[in-house]
């Protein structure tokens, strides 16, 4: 187990106090001062809004600098306080600031573990997992060494929003993660998988499409009630990736770790235009259409890639739009 492993003990929930006017926090003179404040909960329990988020940033920078697992209970208590007293939109903005600072100062990936493990918001979590791996260091296979910690936490069911963790990692497009995240899929329930399928970026990647296509084919082979229930949302992910593709291009890419040590953190292996990519995956799309019962979602998937469905019209799924 890695030294920065994140398994905080449950904290009792507390009732937030009414907001009060606050003056901006005075920046600390050292990490030691931040640590002193973090360990004395009375120094931050009354903080609200921007002041609370500002202190969170200092505390996460401390954690990323020292990689001290003894700070985990205090960081967990602090982050739960943040969730109680801030909205997801402000946490998203602060996460961007924290990630940029962590990259600038070359902090450890564990900087981002509190939002990754404890936040319920899908956007915050899916962003945190991408930033987490970007700060990680490669093992002998070129994959993040720190990825083992995420795998461990997944198996311990430690994440507040596991669907967003999986979905965010799928959007990275790096197919080297697929063996692990296919195993994670087995640990998710229907609602978790639905969250995962809704994680997307403006850039469509081959790795995303292939992952959900692999899952669709596996579910079609299973033919049990649970698989039939999941097939609809998993296959809709393939449809949405074809439908929501503003660039009309698809890239196959791998990431280099850590991102701050390379000029090109994302390496493009291959790139296709829409029509060329449609030919690349056409055989698999038609195979899914033939194998699934009516109404056939993959008839709609085929149309998003300007491919003519082969199923009878009465058997095809026709989206409302």
Indicate the mean pLDDT. 92
> What topology, given as strand order, has the largest sheet?
1-2
User: How can the largest sheet be summarized?
Assistant: 2 strands, antiparallel
Shape designation:
elongated
Structural class, judged by helices and strands?
mainly alpha
- Uncertain segments: 17-21
Strand content: under 5%
Count the helices. How many? 14
Tell me the total number of β-strands: 2
Into which percent range does the helicity of residues fall? 40-55%
The first-to-last residue Cα distance is 49 Å
Task: Report what the structure shows.
With 321 residues, the protein is mainly alpha-helical. It has a domain at 210-249 and 276-321. The protein is 54% helix and 5% strand. Strands 1-2 form a two-stranded antiparallel ribbon. The longest helix has 19 residues, at 225-243. Mean pLDDT is 92; it is low at 17-21.
């Amino acid at each position: 187990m890695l030294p920065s492993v994140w398994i905080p003990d449950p904290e009792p929930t507390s009732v937030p106090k009414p907001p009060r006017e606050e003056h901006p926090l005075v920046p600390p003179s050292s990490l030691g001062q931040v640590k002193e404040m973090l360990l004395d909960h009375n120094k931050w329990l009354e903080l609200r809004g921007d002041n609370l988020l500002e202190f969170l940033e200092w505390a996460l920078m401390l954690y990323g600098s020292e990689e001290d697992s003894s700070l985990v209970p205090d960081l967990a208590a602090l982050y739960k306080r943040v969730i109680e007293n801030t909205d997801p939109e402000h946490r998203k903005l602060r996460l961007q600031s924290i990630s940029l600072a962590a990259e600038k100062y070359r902090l450890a990936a564990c900087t981002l573990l509190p939002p990754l493990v404890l936040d319920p918001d899908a956007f915050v979590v899916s962003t945190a997992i991408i930033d987490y791996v970007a700060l990680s260091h490669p093992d002998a296979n070129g994959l993040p060494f720190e990825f083992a910690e995420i795998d461990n936490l997944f198996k311990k069911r430690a994440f507040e929003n596991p669907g967003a963790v999986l979905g965010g990692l799928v959007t990275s497009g790096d197919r080297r993660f697929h063996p692990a995240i296919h195993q994670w899929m087995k640990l998710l329930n229907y609602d978790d998988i639905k969250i995962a399928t809704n994680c997307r970026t403006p850039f469509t990647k081959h790795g995303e499409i292939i992952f959900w296509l692999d899952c669709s084919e596996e579910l079609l082979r299973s033919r049990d009630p649970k698989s039939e229930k999941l097939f609809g949302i998993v296959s809709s992910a393939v449809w949405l990736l074809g439908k929501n593709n503003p660039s009309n291009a698809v890239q196959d890419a791998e990431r280099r770790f850590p991102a701050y040590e390379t000029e090109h953190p994302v390496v493009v292996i291959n790139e296709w235009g829409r029509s060329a990519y449609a030919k690349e995956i056409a055989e698999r799309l038609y195979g899914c259409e033939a194998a699934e019962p009516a109404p056939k979602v993959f008839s709609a998937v085929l149309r998003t890639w300007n491919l003519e469905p082969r199923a009878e019209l009465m058997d095809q799924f026709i989206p409302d739009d």
